Amino acid sequence: MEISCSSSRSCFELALDYLRCLHDTTKGCGYRISKLEMGVRLLQSFDLYLTKCRRRRRNHETCLDQDEEEKDVTSSRIQDLIIRRMQNLEFACSGSPDSTRIASELTMFLKAIKLFFETDINESCINYLLDCYWLRDPELVIDFIDSVSENLKEINNFNFKRLDEQLMFLKSFIRFAMLRGVEGQQLIDLLIHTEVASINALRLASIWLSEGIRYNDPEAKVQISRLISEKINPTEPQVLETYIHVLTASKLSISSDTSALEKSKQTVADFMDRLVQNTAELLQPCTSTPVPIMNQMLKIVQGLRFLTILLGDQEKFKELWHEMKNIIGVVACDAAVVIFSLSVNQIEEGLAKETDLALFHLLKVLKLIRAEFTQVYPLTSVSGFGFPRTNELGSIDFFLTNLKELARHDEINDSIASPVDKIQTIQKDFEFLRSFLEKIKEQRNQNEKLQVFWSHVMEIAYKAEFVIDSTLVGDRREYCLDDVARDINVLKIEAQEIYDSISYVGETTKGVTKTFTRVPSQVTVATYNEDLVPLDDEVKTITDSLTRGGSRQLDVVSIVGMPGIGKTTLANIVYNSPSVMLHFNLRAWCTVSQAYGMHNMLVQLLGSIDSEKLEQYEKMDENDLAVKLKQVLLRNKYLLVLDDLWDTKAWYLLERSLLNDANGSRILITSRLQNLSLQFEPHSRVHHLRRLTDEESWNLLQKKLFGKEGCPPRLSGVASQIAKSCRGLPLTIVLVAGILASTAKDCWEEVAKSLTSSIVLDEEYCMKTLELSYNHLPDDLKPCLLYFGAFQEDKNVPVRKLLWLWISEGFMRKTEEKSLKDVADDYLKDLVDRSLVMVSEQRTMGGAKACRLHDLVHEFCVKKAKEENFLHVLHSQNGPFVLTSPSNLHRVCNPMNGELMLEFSNVRSLLLFKGDDLGFWLPELLRVLDLGELEFVAHFPMEVFSLAHLRYLALRTRKVNFIPAAIANLSRLQTFLLRGNKADCLLPNTIWNIKTLRHLWTPDSTLGFIFPVENLEVSPGLDHLDSLSLAIDPSSQSLQKILTKLPNIRRLRCTMTESREEPTGTGDGIFVFDCLSQLESLTLCFCHGYRFKFPLNLKKLTLLATDPPWSEISTIGKLPKLEVLKLLSYYYSSPGEEWEMKEEEFPKLRVLKLSHLRDFRRWTASSDNFPRLEKLVVHDCENLEEVPSCLGECLTLEMIEVKRCRQSVVSSVKQIQQEQIDMGNEVLKILIEKCVDT
Question: What are the residue ranges of helices labelled H in 1086-1227?
């Protein structure tokens, strides 16, 4: 490649192309080449400035020619350096390239660039340049910003990312000013100001290249913060003056022609978006802001977000009046003036009168635009068709509970014209109406008048809730509390008339079948993996197809059949059968479904091969995952299961990553489509899964209903008839078993009649059975089932998250005997008992960890939830979302854009599962908000603090070090889930004011929340807090005081905030937890070198990289209720070489896990240790010699799992299994993986 200055392409572009090519072909030089590419780009940016800037006519006119010559000379020297060094590099790479020689030349090239920066482009040179030259042309300035930005983006450092964002703000400001017609001195001042900031940013990037500033380096942080505060943020008077002059000129240049705005709406939207970010950054550190001021600032943020989304919607923007379009540009100017004029001190201490008036005026205009939009696109009103029709009495109960809480907390501000006495009257009236609805609920389906009355009560209840909740966020509605009171009075009169016309004494319910009688369930609960398809011949056929005979080439075997016939269950049985596990070196499972992606499929496959690396795989990009899968499969005989395949495209996506080593590897596919596999593999074997025979159907129904006891003779006739009517479909059989299990036995004939009442196709028959199962559910279980429709099909649903959501939605009713959590557990168990929900993962302490639905059940939930206006799942990003009838969206899952939220501002629950940007317009009445994979970097999204009714908040953040004090606005918040932050997060003092908090949690086990320690003595406690991820400062003496503020905590995870480096051994403190009398589960991370006092109530203890000595473990063994103990050591040494257990330790322990205990060699125990042990897990204990033989006497033992240990450990485990068999216990299973002596 010939590099010269006269080339049609610049020497910089040619050099970068050559370096990219060199990076792909040369090993061992990647880091040097990357650094060199950075250096070339930096020089390119400086050269761009030198070649485009022009001399300034100020105080240097006497030496202008000399200055111009120096500038050109510097530019020529930069280009000469690139050309010369590239020629040397090309020479080093010619002929027979020597990697050492190439590396040496790359190093010399990089040194030459660094030296040039130090001598020719240092701070004094830059100051001289800025004093004598300028770009002046706005487009040239923007080009220069883009060039600098490209360099900053290449630096993997948060501080430089922040600097890049600030330059993008200046760019948007210039574009906005140009759009508004600003010119002359005001524009020139802004351009000069931007040039200064940009070239200084470039200088800092060159320092990073020269000095290798590391991540979070204090010097880099200080220099960048100084540049931002002095040259970009309007905290400096001169900067503020420049900005205000530009904005004033923007307002004065208003034109009646709005065509420019219509063509460049995105420019205004970008500027507004930057203003929102600036406001959020301004509000973040505010710790003692008066509530009215904070609320006003949040309304500005909310208003600007609204306008940003409105500008992005072509059709809606067109419909606005001409004058309103003009106002939007002025609002951007006014908002910028207000925001730029504020400081943290002003916000906390009180606004100046002039600023206060400007703020008041701005909010008034924003409200006017909202009102105008509402006229063009009227917000859907609460109508008879608009409210959810699922568990309506439960909805009224939830409304009444909220009214009682409202009265108790006295949360209605005196300034709001909705006095407490009116709300209390509404509460009493609805209590009367609620009791009346209870009396007529069995009759209303047979009486049209009662149906109309019922619907009218529900309509007014939702209207009342809407009006009251809107009032509490300061949003007055046309339909007010007086209207509610009037409508309620009409309902009370109507109720009295109905009561007088109906006799309740001795009257039996008409037309209601007895099948709704609810009895305690006797169903045999199955987990997702349990054998429910009694087809031994089918299992053998598929197993033989995979393991016996056949071609050595990679082959495909398909299981096909209609929905509900048991394809996935059969594949799962085969997948986990001992013969298949022994035959294949690797096994992997992927559930494809209709909505699939290459990245997700690869993660599933790799994760099922090595689950410990799942989080690592999720962060890798698609290409790297494909390469990794090839590496893992190479020279291994593997079995891959592709479950629920719908089309050939998914296969072709994966096929590129699959290897054919001619070693007998196999692909097992399940699909509803009969000949799908033949389309991409003509010679594949297709197995059509048969239905169950009548006898098999009867046996399965008995197994589900009666376990080993068998069906009582008096029921065998009707039960057998019901089994036959299920058409040999396993899913139908288990669903019907769920119905029968909760139905009085003398009513089973009614179920049989319902199942045979019509002739439909098989798939429709499954849906009909599901409808019957749903109708048999108690009302309070129906919303719990339909809520599964919000989750993705064929995905595991974390039970803890599910229950937290149910509680936040108000589905649970607290009783005197049980907490909301216990009620939610019971509800889930009931759904599992009815075979509507499958348990896919079990907890070590018992109960479900994850669950899922059969895809047909999920399909039913989505459809039924939409029918009853309970939940709307949005699938398409391209097509418009159309409602078939007048409606209010109550719950929305996966909205693809913010425009939808503009039209349905009454949404109460918003759930995302993707990373799509909403535009971030959030309906003010939200109770539940989960923003899924949408990530907020460095700054907490202040918009959520406007959501006064919020009960559940789940966010993904990165590098957010503290939660703003404004979180106290969320006075009803119950659950706060913070994902992905990668840093401990400091809570504000105001956190103690959120008395409703139940869960403060981070999924990352190494991170937590840091509680404030100021004024702990006078801070109120969080009496309802149940689950907490806590970060402990080892230097603080406040841990004990903090724990006393959390008296009812049941689940606690503590992580040390200090460095994760090797400990110094100075930690000799004691962490005391015995004050937490309700604590059941405790996890301690990185608490190496400390001792502990545990509460006697503790049931589960996990020690991660904590490693107390074995003597301390013996103390733990005396805890009377401990059921689960996990000792996990990943970074530090293990507790010691020998664990010699003492008598009567761990009397109730059921699960013991030992992992990565590298120094652990000998384990001595006696027969009275672990009398109730059920599961033992030993992973990566590479020096352990054997497992104690006395475990062979433990009659409760069900599973031993050993991975990456010595063969002597494997031998001892097999000996224990044999002893168990000799004692008559054939329940014990052992799982051995990757155990080879090194």
Answer: 1110-1116, 1207-1222
